[in-house]
Amino acid sequence: MSESSHGDGYGPRHRQVEIGVAAATAVFGAVVMAGSLQVGITWAVEGPRAGFFPFYVGLLILAASGVNAMRAMRTIAPGKLFASWKQLRSVASVVVPTAVYVLLLPHAGIYLSSALLIAVFMIWLGRYAWRMTLAVSVGMPFVTYFLFERWFLIPLPKGPIENMLGL
Amino acid sequence: MEEISNLMHGFGVVIQPFNLLVMVIGIVLGVLIGVLPGLGGANGVAILLPLTFSMPPTSAIIMLSCIYWGALFGGAITSILFNIPGEPWSVATTFDGHPMAQQGRAGEALTAAFTSSFVGALFAVIVITLVAPLVAKFALQFGPAEKFSVFFLAFCSFVGMGKEPPFKTLVAMMMGFALAAVGLDTVTGQLRLTFGFTELLGGFDFLIAVIGLFGIGEILLTMEEGLSFKGRAAGINGKVVLQTWMELPRYWATSLRSCLIGCWMGITPAGATPASFMSYGIAKRLSPKGRKFGTGKIEGVIAPETAAHAAGTSALLPMLSLGVPGSPTAAVLLGGLLIWGLQPGPLLFVEQTEFVWGLIASMYVGNVVGLIVVLTMVPFFAAILRIPFSIIAPIILVVCAIGAYTVHNSAFDVVLMLVFGVIGYVMKKCNYPMAPMVLAIVLGDKAEEAFRQSLLGSGGSLGIFWSNGLVGSIMTIGLVALLWPLIERIWGGMRARAAS
Fold first, then answer.
1. Residue B455: how many CA atoms within 13 Å on its side-chain side?
2. Nearest CB to B426; choose among A21, A43, A118
C-alpha cells in the first residue's frame, strides 16, 4: 500500500505505534514480574506467596506482548497511518487543558478550575462570545455546587475562593 | 412458588413513590448519558454511584439500574437521527435506522427501536426471574475450585469469542489482573507491587479506570474524528407509534431469535455489542428482504436493538446469581453492591431477598417507565444533541473529574483518570478491548483468592480443577472457549483439505 493512498496529511505510522504499545505492555509485564519477585513467588507454609499469582500474570503479559509485536510487523501495512498530525493536534487540544485542569484542581478547588476549563474550551475551540462563555462557565459550577454539596451532601475539593466565601 | 410471592413483594417495594421518582430520574439521566458522546452506561453509572451512597441500597440499585436501561434506550436515538452511535451496541442500528430517518421515517424507526429494546429487556428479565434463583441455589454448593472455574470460563470467553485479536484481549485482561493485584494481598495481608509509592497502597479502583477508559478515552476519540452533528428531525407522535406497533408483530420470528441471541451473549460475557451485530447479521441472512438491508428496513432496526437490550439486561443474571458480571456496566453495579456492604453472589438470594427481588421487580417496571419516557421525550433529547461539542465536551470532562474525585475523595484519582483516558484512547485505536480489562480489575482479587484456595486444598496440584464432573466440565468448556480461534482455524483447514 502506498502512502499517497491515505491522502489526508502525515502522521505517525500505525505499525510503529502498535509496536510501541506492545513494547509498553511488555515493560509493564516485566515490572509486574519484578514486583512479584520482591514479595516472593514460591510456596511457603501458608501456601502460595503474595507474588505467586501476579508473577504468572506478568509473564503472560510479556509473552503475549511479544506475539502482538510480531503480528504488528507481519500484518500491518507499513504506510498505514495511526492518525494524522492534524487529528492528533485536536486530541492534544483536549488532553493538554485537561492535564492542566487535573493538576490545578487540588490547589484552586473544583469550582474555579472547572469554570476555567469550560471557558478555555468555549473560547479557544468554540470561538464563543465572552458573554455566552461566562454564562456557561460560571453556571455549571453553581449547578454542581447545589447538586453535590447541598442536595447529596458530597464535599468536593475547594480552594482559596471558597474559603474566602466561607463555604 | 416462593419466587412469585417474593417478586410480588418486590413490586410492592418498587412502586413506593420515592422509588418511582428515583426510577424516572434514573431513566432520564440514563438516556442523557446514552445520547451524549463520551458518557456511556458503564462510566455513567460509575460517575453517579457516589450520589447513591446516602440512599437505602434498594433505591440506590433501582436508580443505577434505571440509568443503565436509559443508556441502552438512548443509544438508539443518536444512531437513528444522527447516524452517530451513542453507544457501541447501537452501531448496528445505524445501518437501517438512519436510512429510515433520511426517508422521513424517523418516528417509525425510533418507535421500532424503543419497542424492540423493551421486548428484548422484558424477555431477559423473565429469564432472570426464572433462572437466576435456580443458578444461585446451585451455586451455593460451589467450593473454591468451582468458583475459580466460573471466573475462568468468563475470562476465556472474552479471549476466544471477542472480535479483537486474542493476544490483545489477553494482554488487556492480564493488565487488569495485574492492576487488581496492586496493594494489599487479600490472602496473606502483605503489600505488593506498590514500589514504595504511598498512593498505590490502596490499589487501583476500577471505577476510576472505567471513568477514564470509557469516558475520557471516548471524548478523545470523538475529538479526533472531528465530530459534527447533522441530525434529522424527530417526528414522533401517537399515530406513528400506533401504526408501527400494528406492524411489529409481523416480525415476531426476528424478535424471538434476537431475544435468544441477546440472552445467550449477555449471560456468557460476550456483551451487547457483538450480540447486536450477530443478530443483525443473522436477520439479514434469513430475511426474505435480506438483500435490501441497509436501505431502511424495519427488521434491520428490530434485530440489533432487541438483541442489545436482551444482552444488556441478561448480563445481570450471572452478576446476581454468581457474582460474575457479564458486562462492564454490570461490573460497576457489582462494585456498587460491595460499597453498600452487600456481597454479590448466590448468598444474595438467601440473605438479601428484599434487595434482589426489588431489583428484579424494578427491571420490569423500569423498562415500562423507560419506554414511556423515551417515546414522549425524544425531541428534548434530540435538542440536547444539537448543543455544540465545544460546550458539551468540557462539561463532560468536569462531570468525569467530579465522579473520579468522589469515589475516594482523592485528587490523585483524578490524575489517574486522565492517564487511563489516554491509555483508553490508544488501546481503542490499536484494537485492544477494554471490557475484559475492567472486569479483571473488578474480579482480580476474587479470582486469585479462589485460585489460591483451590491450590491450597490440593497441595499445589492443578488436578483439583478436574477433580469432579462439574468443575472439570466448566474448565474444559473454558479451555475450548480460550482456544476457539485455533480450533476454528484447524477445522477450517481440514475442511478445505477435504474439499480439495
1. 19
2. A21
pLDDT (tens digit per residue) in B92-127: 888 888 888 888 888 888 889 999 999 999 999 999
- pLDDT for the residue numbered B1: 63
B428-470 confidence digits (pLDDT tens): 899 998 888 888 888 888 888 889 888 888 887 888 899 888 8
Q: Mind giving me the DSSP string for B438-487?
A: HHHHHHHHHHHHHHHHHHHHHTS-GGGGGSSHHHHHHHHHHHHHHTHHHH
Exposure of B1 by Cβ count < 10 A (0-12 exposed, 13-18 middle, 19+ buried)? exposed
| Gap between the Cα atoms of B48 and B374, Å rounded | 20
A133 touches B at CB < 8 Å = no
Question: What is the SS3 string spanning chain A?
Answer: CCHHHHCCCCCCEHHHHHHHHHHHHHHHHHHHHHHHHHHCCCEECCEECCCHHHHHHHHHHHHHHHHHHHHHHHHCCCCCECCCHHHHHHHHHHHHHHHHHHHHHHHHEHHHHHHHHHHHHHHHHCCCCHHHHHHHHHHHHHHHHHHHHHHCCCCCCECHHHHHHCC
In this structure, the number of other CB atoms found within 10 A of the CB of residue A130 comes to 11
Using the Cβ of A126 and the Cβ atoms of chain B, whether some distance falls under 8 Å is answered with: yes
In DSSP terms, A81 is beta-bridged to: A13
Helix B166-181 and helix A52-75, axial crossing angle in degrees, nearest 10: 150
Cβ proximity of B72 and B329 under 8 Å: no
Cβ proximity of A79 and A5 under 8 Å:
yes
Q: Is A42's Cβ below 8 Å from some Cβ in B?
A: no
> Which residue in chain A has the smallest CA separation from B453?
A47
- Cell numbers that stand for B133 in this block: 434463583
Q: Strands, E, within B118-254: which ranges?
A: 183-184, 191-192
What are the residues facing B183 on neighbouring strands? B192
Q: What are the pLDDT digits (tens) for A18-52?
A: 999 999 999 999 999 999 998 888 887 777 888 88
Chain B residues with beta carbon closer than 8 angstroms to that of A106? 411
Q: What is the ipTM of this complex?
A: 0.89
Beta pairing class for B183-184 and A47-48: unpaired
Residue type, B216: I
